[in-house]
């Protein structure tokens, strides 16, 4: 470890000031006689006073570039902060090497345009333009009390470093030789395990360790590993902007441009007004006013229910009131920055030290920018500068292992780990990119690419030489098993074989206990010794107990959007219901105009609420019209040959099952009940081509038709004839002009008329389900329905239904909330991100006593 001398000045990167003071305190007992500064802060003392600040230079560049030729390729970028910063970086770098800008080439159009830009702004004074002069004036000064902490310096920093060393300054370096360890492993996660393993097995002090990572993902994996092993750490370059600084930036962005997007961000972050943002998410066309929803009378429809409509009304009232109370923000401009800051201060009666620093830095920048703020768009540079303050924030406290980048490596810490040391991620060499790239620089008298590469490699190697214990880890492949190439600079420096480390990670993940106590389940699901639920609820539990718990126990509802494509099935269902109510059995004979009237009426209310969605709604109407026409065309054959009458639609029912000392109350709505004088038949509309299987009924995942039938029989005393699904899915039928018979020696062809194909199309829509009586009594055609040979009798159905329902209820009340799901149950589940890898696909058990019998 290097020695620290009393009455000295130590030059170190700002990120390392606190760890360095901590090291001095441990070595000396106090830090009173030692001053720690950054190189930039130290050299600033020797430059002329009253040089313009960074932000002032950018604004001066912007003003000078107003006279840029319109033909210049960079004319449209002349006010962009990124472009101005790129110009400043290049000019400052060039001045550091005493570059003569008159020697810039102007052979290509890009060179001519950039030369015009540079000639307009190069005379604005920068501190770098005084570097040579300042150094010459300081040549006789003795800097023997200055100690420089070794790190990877940039070429411009090294101009000062070299001068200080030539004038008796010292480089803080280790005396001991570096002990090198070179490992390889399978992937990035494995290298994090290796680091934790080395630290723990060697009982290393976390305060003596620093790690250089090359990507955010490496940092995240490393943090997870350290958290698991309880190894303390600090991330040096973590961006943790305060809420106050974010609000200030969003406020200035609002002053610059009062667009809807900026307004929503502003009210959400600055005022925490989620409801106002939600309102304008729904009604962006009303901005900056509100839309008079309360003046529109509610009309029943399948898209927007009455509760949702009332929510919209409440949002309108709230937003209107908020806008009236804050109408001054729309009058704010670049002259009202202090008004905005004062309002921001009211939200923070007590400021943290971080917030106080943010306020001070922000006010300094605003003060410097104020003379240049003549219109709202001039705030661009100020906003960009405030964002950069956030990027440069350092941790307020340090503990344990320091996690940073290559440029943070110093001999301050005894042990250094360099992770992901392969060619892809480890960028030892920094090349010029952007507008002033290597192609632009190569023909100038500035330092060549070869010179800069040699310098960077030299700095890298000298820094590594100062590390007592150096661990370099290079993964062999990515997570996708793509091979990674080794880094040549690392290979050259290490000059030793790479040892493969196999880490066998034992899974410490424990599957959560998806279980409730029976007592808790009773409190959650029972009310006055009664279990109340819909049939879809029981089916949900049968398909996945965890989904049932989330939906019916926690009442976590899926966020529904009336524009969701999945609601089309509901709309088609409602259209058929409306047509049958109005036209009875003749609903399949309605014309195009009558269909359009019903569909248009279904969407009319949504059009009134969301006039900005009119084109989208019209497109949906056209699509649903075409689909409805096809469905009616197919259902016409069924209705023509079916002789029961439509008795009820959307019929509400309730059905009670006594069980032990309690009761099970089931309820729901039956899509359609057809009757004769003595019998009835149940129909349920489905968007898919669903079939009724005995296995699905017995495992509880398909109870609807059975429950509807049993409840209707109990209430009507009519004879149940059958229960069926009617699919609202229209499947196309391809027309083949010929049918070929290859069984004969000479194949024969038979012409197929289009009418035959059309008959196939119209006759393919067959209700699928179970028949409990001879259903042909009510049919003109024998093949009107698709039924199963194993269909149960009604008495058998009723008996099994009671067994299944009671078994499901018992399982629910036992506290079962395991994510043991049925096949495909997760495909469209809104909660699948909750159970994640705990989900378990199982074959659902038979819930009758069939197996015991």
List keywords for this structure.
single chain, 853 residues, alpha/beta, 8-stranded mixed β-sheet, 7-stranded parallel β-sheet, 23 strands
Average pLDDT score: 90
Count of DSSP E strands? 23
What distance lies between the first and last C-alpha atoms, to the nearest angstrom? 82 Å
Could you estimate the helical fraction of the residues in percent?
40-55%
Structural class: alpha/beta
Shape: elongated
User: Total helix count?
Assistant: 30
Percentage of β-strand residues:
5-15%
Radius of gyration: 38 Å
The major pleated sheet works out as: 8 strands, mixed
Low-confidence stretches: none
In short:
This protein is an alpha/beta fold. The longest helix has 27 residues, at 614-640.
Describe the protein:
By secondary structure, the chain is of the alpha/beta class. The chain contains 30 helices and 23 strands. The strands form 5 sheets. Strands 12, 13, 14, 15, 16, 17, 20 and 21 form an 8-stranded mixed β-sheet that branches. Strands 7-8-6-9-10-5-11 form a 7-stranded parallel β-sheet. It starts with 7 loop residues before the first strand and ends in a 12-residue tail after the last strand. The model has no long low-confidence stretch (mean pLDDT 90).
């Amino acid at each position: 470890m290097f020695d620290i001398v009393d009455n000295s000045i130590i030059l170190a990167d700002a990120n390392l000031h606190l760890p360095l003071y901590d090291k001095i305190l441990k070595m000396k007992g106090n830090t009173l006689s030692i001053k720690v500064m950054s190189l930039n802060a130290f050299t600033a003392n020797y430059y002329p006073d009253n040089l313009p600040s960074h932000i002032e230079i950018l604004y001066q560049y912007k003003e000078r570039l107003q006279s840029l030729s319109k033909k210049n390729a960079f004319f449209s970028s002349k006010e962009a902060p990124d472009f101005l910063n790129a110009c400043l970086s290049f000019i400052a770098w060039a001045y550091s090497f005493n570059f003569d800008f008159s020697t810039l080439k102007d052979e290509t159009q890009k060179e001519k345009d950039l030369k015009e830009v540079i000639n307009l702004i190069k005379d604005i004074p920068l501190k770098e333009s005084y570097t040579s002069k300042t150094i010459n004036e300081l040549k006789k000064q003795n800097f023997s009390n200055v100690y420089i902490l070794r790190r990877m310096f940039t070429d411009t920093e090294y101009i000062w470093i070299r001068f200080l060393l030539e004038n008796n300054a010292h480089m803080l370096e280790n005396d001991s030789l570096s002990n090198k360890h070179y490992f390889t492993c399978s992937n990035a996660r494995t290298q994090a395990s290796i680091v934790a393993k080395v630290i723990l097995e060697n009982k290393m002090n976390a305060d003596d360790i620093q790690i250089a990572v090359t990507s955010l993902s490496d940092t995240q994996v490393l943090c997870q590993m350290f958290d698991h092993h309880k190894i303390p750490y600090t991330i040096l370059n973590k961006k943790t902007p305060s809420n106050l600084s974010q609000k200030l930036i969003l406020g200035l962005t609002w002053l610059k441009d009062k667009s809807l997007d900026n307004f929503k961000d502003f009210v959400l972050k600055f005022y925490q007004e989620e409801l106002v943002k939600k309102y304008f998410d729904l009604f962006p066309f009303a901005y900056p006013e509100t839309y008079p929803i309360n003046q529109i009378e509610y009309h029943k429809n399948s898209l927007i229910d009455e509760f949702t409509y009332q929510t919209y009304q409440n949002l309108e009232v709230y937003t209107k009131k908020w806008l009236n109370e804050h109408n001054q923000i729309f009058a704010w401009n670049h002259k009202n920055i202090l008004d905005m800051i004062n309002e921001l201060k009211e939200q923070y009666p007590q400021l943290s030290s971080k917030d106080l620093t943010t306020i001070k830095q922000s006010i300094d920048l605003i003060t410097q920018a104020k003379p240049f703020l003549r219109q709202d768009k001039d705030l661009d540079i100020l906003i960009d500068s405030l964002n950069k303050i956030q990027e440069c924030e350092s941790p307020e406290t340090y503990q344990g292992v320091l996690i940073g980048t290559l440029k943070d490596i110093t001999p301050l810490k005894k042990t250094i780990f360099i992770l992901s040391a392969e060619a892809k991620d480890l960028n030892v060499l920094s090349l010029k990119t952007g507008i002033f790239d290597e192609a632009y620089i190569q023909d100038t008298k500035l330092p060549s690419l070869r010179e800069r590469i040699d310098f960077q490699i030299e700095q890298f190697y000298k820094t590594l030489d100062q590390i007592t214990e150096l661990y370099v880890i290079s993964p062999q492949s990515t997570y996708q098993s793509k091979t990674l190439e080794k880094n040549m600079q690392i290979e050259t420096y290490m000059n030793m074989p790479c040892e493969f480390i196999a880490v066998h990670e034992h899974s410490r993940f424990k599957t959560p206990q998806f279980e409730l106590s029976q007592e808790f389940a009773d409190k959650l699901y029972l009310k006055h010794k009664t279990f109340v639920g819909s049939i879809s609820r029981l089916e949900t539990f049968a398909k996945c107990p965890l989904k049932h718990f989330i939906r019916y126990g926690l009442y976590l509802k899926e966020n529904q959007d009336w524009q969701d494509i999945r609601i089309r099935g509901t709309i088609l269902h409602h259209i058929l219901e409306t047509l049958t109510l109005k036209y009875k059995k003749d609903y399949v004979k309605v014309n195009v105009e009558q269909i359009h009237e019903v569909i248009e009426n279904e969407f009319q209310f949504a059009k009134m609420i969301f006039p900005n969605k009119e084109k989208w709604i019209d497109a949906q109407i056209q699509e649903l019209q075409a689909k409805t026409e096809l469905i009616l065309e197919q259902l016409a054959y069924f209705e023509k040959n079916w002789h029961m009458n439509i008795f009820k639609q959307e019929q509400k029912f309730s059905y009670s099952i006594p069980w032990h000392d309690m009761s099970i109350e089931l309820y729901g709505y039956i899509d359609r009940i057809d009757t004769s004088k003595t019998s009835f038949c149940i129909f349920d509309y489905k968007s898919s081509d669903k079939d009724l299987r005995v296995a699905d009924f017995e495992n509880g995942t398909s109870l609807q038709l059975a429950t509807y039938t049993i409840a209707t029989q109990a209430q009507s005393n009519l004879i149940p004839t059958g229960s069926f699904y009617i699919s609202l899915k229209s499947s196309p039928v391809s027309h083949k002009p010929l049918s070929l018979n290859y069984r004969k020696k000479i194949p024969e062809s038979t012409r197929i008329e289009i009418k035959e194909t059309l008959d196939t199309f119209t006759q393919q829509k067959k209700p699928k389900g179970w028949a409990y009586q001879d259903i042909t009594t009510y049919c003109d055609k024998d093949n009107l329905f698709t039924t199963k040979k194993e269909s149960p009798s009604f008495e058998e159905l009723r008996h099994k239904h009671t067994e299944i329902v009671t078994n499901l209820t018992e399982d629910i009340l036992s506290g079962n909330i395991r994510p043991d799901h049925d096949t495909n149950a997760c495909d469209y589940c809104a909660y699948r991100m909750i159970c994640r890898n705990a989900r378990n696909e199982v074959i659902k058990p038979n819930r009758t006593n069939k197996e015991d019998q």
